[in-house]
Design a protein that fits this description.
Shape: globular
Radius of gyration: 27 Å
Structural class: alpha/beta
Number of domains: 4
Bound molecules: alpha-D-galactopyranose
CATH class of the largest domain: Alpha Beta
Helix content: 25-40%
CATH topology of the largest domain: TIM Barrel
Number of helices: 18
Length: about 675
């Protein structure tokens, strides 16, 4: 009996969706918003959806915190309202991304099964009243979150207006409850087989840490054994992968293959509580939530973050959340300037986003985030920012077809390796050593020259890149060493930065000294590292400049290893010693740079690196401070150009290019601050 109204509802949805499909509807480039229909009377839904559609927003993400409205008591699922919301969206040409609600388990669940509540490292069990209160390994939590995901997938897995799924929301907190500890011990047992092996690799004779039973092994994140710390990160990663798979399996089992599955990662992209490449592996594509918080758009950092995110799966991604002007959680939650959010949205698209969604549509009247930036106020009227969204909506509709099926393409890659990130962070040795800043130093200089740089996990392969820079490749396994050597011998140009190869895959100091397994490849060894109080002069191939924060002195071992940079007068130890060693190997080259360099020298370095590696990706000339992002595919070549300068700039349109946002513009256009041009290069006519 129950299935008859269900069938009618689906037929109805199909009907409205196909009617809607004829009107201006969702294009290949989607603008959308997080929308929480459960917070509003149903009579209001149409008004909100109409406002969305009027602004050219054709995607709504719903459901990710609605567990108590979807399952008010255990096993009683109330999903009719979800269906009505999806159908209402369809009537307005708005496709739906359905979130599984596992980030916010309801009160009945946490009080009935207190073991589902997370325990902090200090041993405090989190109580109800927020979100993310769940224990990510709890079997009961996993069972119930799988069940609700399955119910949703059964019900909406064939709904024509549901285009895809988001699992959970911004995975974040691990748990230190007894069950998680037990899993940790089992995980270690599986990895090491015997305690002797674990004691050996962690060298637990140090400080009498030797373990004689698995359950003696602590689970902690402080200044613990470095081998333990690295393994704990890998363990945490596996638990999140498991949590995600647990829901993914049931969605895949019930949903149409056309419905894709993603998740939205937070932590401003660079967070490293777990390995994000591993999370992305099981998904159709990855999404992330980009926020500025206090201050203004830092185009280099945010642009690099988009590239990092794209690197997790090496394909285009979604921005599932972006602030409509301002957030509510920053020290000073200032608004981005008028036009600045638009620039941020276009920057995301330029770097490979195929959809961008605001968080959020309208603030709940009560609840923790009342002050957050929105598009519609508590009175139901659009706020001033709505107009900026509307401009974006119109632009997405116009430009979407040109961008469909295109992606950024790079000949230069920077390596970002989670094992190394973790290992260095466990022991910085200099509080000034910031791995992200180090990476961004290379990135900024290389991107200015090439207008496109990938940031990738080395495990995914290096083939196709002319130049690879590994700023901080601290942990090197035999597999990694093999991969790098193959890359260089095959014709790649590799630059290794300081701290490379110091550790083996157990985060133990390599018995080969530094750079450990890379010693033969580099043809040199690091004699000693030094955390610097003051800058040190350095000169050679890249002119005269300064080493800053960190310096290692090298000794060439291979006869063909050439000293290419040398330290000037410093602490006595470094004086006159090699700072960089380079050599040819096979068809490629390898350099080991032992120092961090000041920006001016980095720029010269980048120029030389790009030239030596014959990087020749197509670029277009623009004034300084103007960002260019190139997307190619389907025989099309499109440049997103953004003026980040406080003043207007004049842009000469490159030959054969027209601005899709200003179709009548000829030859040159003026771009005020934050303004954007989207240039399409017409394919050269065959002779
Ligand atoms: C996160 C969450 C959202 C919301 C925003 C506020 O990214 O995913 O639910 O809390 O922050 O900025």
């Amino acid at each position: 009996m129950k299935s008859v109204p269900r069938l009618l509802a689906v037929l109805f949805a199909l009907a409205v969706f196909s009617v809607a499909g004829r009107a201006a509807g969702p294009g290949p480039l989607l603008l959308g918003s997080a929308w929480y229909p459960e917070q509003w009377p149903e009579e209001r839904w149409d008004a909100d959806l109409k406002l969305m559609a009027d602004a050219g927003m054709h995607m709504a993400r719903i459901g990710e915190f609605a567990w108590s409205s979807m399952e008010p008591e255990e096993g009683r699922y109330t999903l009719d309202w979800v269906e009505r919301a999806i159908n209402a969206a369809a009537r307005h040409n708005i496709v739906v991304v359905l979130g599984t609600p596992s980030d916010a388990p309801p009160a009945w669940l946490t009080s009935k099964y207190p073991e589902t509540l997370r325990v902090t490292e200090a041993g405090v069990q989190i109580r109800h009243g927020f979100r993310r209160q769940f224990n990510y390994t709890s079997p009961k939590y996993l069972e119930l979150s799988r069940r609700i995901a399955e119910e949703l997938a059964r019900r909406f897995g064939h709904h024509p207006n549901v285009i895809g799924w988001q699992i959970g929301n911004e995975y974040t907190e691990d748990s230190f409850d007894p069950h998680s500890r037990q899993l940790w011990h089992q995980w270690l047992q599986r990895k090491y087989g015997t305690l002797d092996q674990l004691n050996h690799h962690w060298m637990t004779a140090y400080w009498s840490q030797t373990y004689s039973a698995w359950d003696q092994i602590p689970m902690e994140t402080g200044r613990s054994n470095p081998g333990l710390l690295l393994d704990y990160k890998r363990f945490v990663t596996e638990q999140w992968v498991h949590l995600q798979r647990n829901q993914l399996e049931v969605i895949r089992a019930h949903a149409d293959p056309r419905q894709w599955i993603t998740t939205n990662l937070g932590g401003l992209g660079w967070a490293n509580r777990f390995n994000r490449t591993d999370i992305a592996a099981d998904l159709d594509f990855i999404s992330w939530d980009t926020y500025v918080g206090q201050g203004h758009l830092n185009p280099t950092r945010i642009g690099a973050t988009h590239d990092l995110v794209r690197g997790w799966k090496r394909k285009n991604f979604w921005v599932m959340e972006i602030q409509p002007g301002f957030v509510d959680w920053a020290g000073i939650a200032n608004s981005l300037d008028k036009g600045e959010t638009r620039a941020a949205v276009w920057e995301a698209v330029g770097h490979g986003a195929d959809a961008v969604a605001f968080w959020q549509w309208r603030a709940a009247l009560n609840g923790q985030e009342q002050y957050h930036g929105v598009l519609v106020g508590p009175d139901g009227e659009p706020v001033p920012f709505y107009e900026e969204a509307r401009q974006l909506g119109a632009e997405f509709a116009r430009v979407g077809p040109a961008l469909a099926g295109t992606s950024p393409e790079s000949q230069v890659a920077i390596l970002h390796d989670y094992d190394s990130r973790w290992a260095i962070d466990f022991h910085l040795h200099s509080k000034r050593y910031d791995q992200i800043e180090t990476l961004l130093g290379y990135y900024a200089a290389l991107r200015e020259l090439t207008q496109s740089v990938d940031i990738i996990d080395p495990r995914g392969g290096l083939e196709g890149y002319k130049l690879v820079v590994a700023p901080n490749l601290n942990v090197v396994s035999p597999e990694m060493a093999r991969r790098l050597e193959q890359y260089v011998r095959g014709g790649g140009h590799l630059l290794l930065g300081p701290r490379s190869g110091l550790m083996n895959e157990y985060n133990a100091l390599s018995t080969l000294g530094q750079p450990g397994l890379l010693r033969d490849l580099v043809g040199a060894k690091v004699e000693q590292f030094y955390a610097l109080l003051d800058d040190v002069p350095v000169s050679g191939r890249w002119g005269d400049g300064r080493a800053t924060i960190w310096a290692e002195y090298l000794r060439p071992l291979a006869p063909d290893a050439t000293v290419t940079l040398t330290y000037g007068r410093a602490n006595g130890w470094l004086d006159g010693k090699p700072a960089m060693v380079s050599r040819k190997l096979g068809k490629g080259t390898i350099s080991y740079l032992g120092a961090l360099l000041e920006p001016a020298m980095m720029q010269r370095a980048a120029r030389d690196l790009v030239q030596a590696a014959s990087v020749n990706s197509p670029t277009i000339p623009v004034p300084a401070g103007v960002e260019v992002c190139r997307r190619v595919g389907q025989g099309r070549e499109v440049f997103v150009v953004i003026n980040h300068n406080p003043k207007p700039v004049v842009l000469d349109l490159p030959v054969g290019c027209s601005d899709l946002l200003r179709p009548s513009a000829q030859e040159r256009i003026e771009l005020p601050q934050y303004d954007v041009a989207v240039l399409q290069r017409n394919p050269a006519k065959p002779n």
